[in-house]
TrEMBL record:
Lineage: Bacteria, Pseudomonadati, Pseudomonadota, Gammaproteobacteria, Pseudomonadales
UniProt keywords, alphabetically: Membrane, Transmembrane, Transmembrane helix
Protein name according to UniProt: Multidrug transporter
Top-rank taxon: Bacteria
Transmembrane segments: 6-26, 38-60
Length: 216
């Protein structure tokens, strides 16, 4: 389409829209009814969105500053087979799982708020997502089955997933994961979380020695 033809088409469309808009003013009741309908529809959409946020917040823990959200201990059961215990700090029941590999990692979902939700003081929320194992050998990592355990149930509608796909207003869904840490018999780690992500900190001598040997 040439520029001249495009100008004519756009001008015609624009003029038609203006005329249609002016017709509303010929009968003000139509305009007032339409405005009321749009206002009610907008309020319903806003209310539904607030309800979705409330339902999802019920499944998240409040996050203010850097805090310890769980402890993880590892006990050797066999060669590259470990009993891993994750104890959340929110009085929830511990997760005891068997993982294969040489290292562990825990992931979390984080929701941060902006705009009016931040102004009224809603703190970021987190939910521990999964616990997984990994082999240090690339060949084993590719050939052996992965050990991944879910740590929570997904709430529907899933606000975090919706933000990842549609960039929802006033919220930001962030995926946080702790760096892979080495498995060691009797090792104990703290999992600490801030609004930007997870950090794993060795607590006892076995954990510190495992990290030192792993870094060498």
């Amino acid at each position: 389409m040439s520029n001249e033809l495009a100008t004519i088409v756009l001008a015609a469309c624009g003029g038609l829209l203006v005329i249609i808009g002016l017709l509303f003013f010929l009968r003000p009741r139509w305009l007032l009814g339409w405005l009321k309908g749009m206002a009610v529809f907008g309020l319903m959409l806003l209310g539904a969105y607030v309800l979705i946020i409330a339902v999802n917040l019920a499944g998240y823990q409040s996050l203010e500053g850097m805090q310890t959200v769980a402890t993880i201990s590892t006990q050797r059961q066999d060669d590259q087979l470990w009993r891993v215990t994750l104890e959340p700090r929110n009085d929830a029941a511990p997760f005891v799982e068997t993982l294969s590999g040489d290292q562990w990692q825990v992931d979390a979902r984080i929701i941060r708020f902006s705009g009016p939700l931040r102004w009224i003081g809603i703190a970021p929320g987190y939910r521990l997502e999964r616990l997984g194992g990994r082999y240090t050998s690339l060949e084993q990592e590719r050939s052996q089955p992965r050990s991944v355990v879910s740590l929570g149930e997904v709430t529907w509608p899933d606000l975090w997933a919706l933000d990842q796909e549609f960039n929802m207003p006033f919220i930001e869904g962030v995926y946080g994961n702790a760096t892979f840490m080495p498995m060691r018999d009797g090792a104990l780690f703290d999992v600490r979380l801030s609004a930007s992500g997870l950090v794993a900190v060795p607590v006892n001598q076995q954990a510190r020695q495992a990290v030192q040997e792993w870094d060498q």
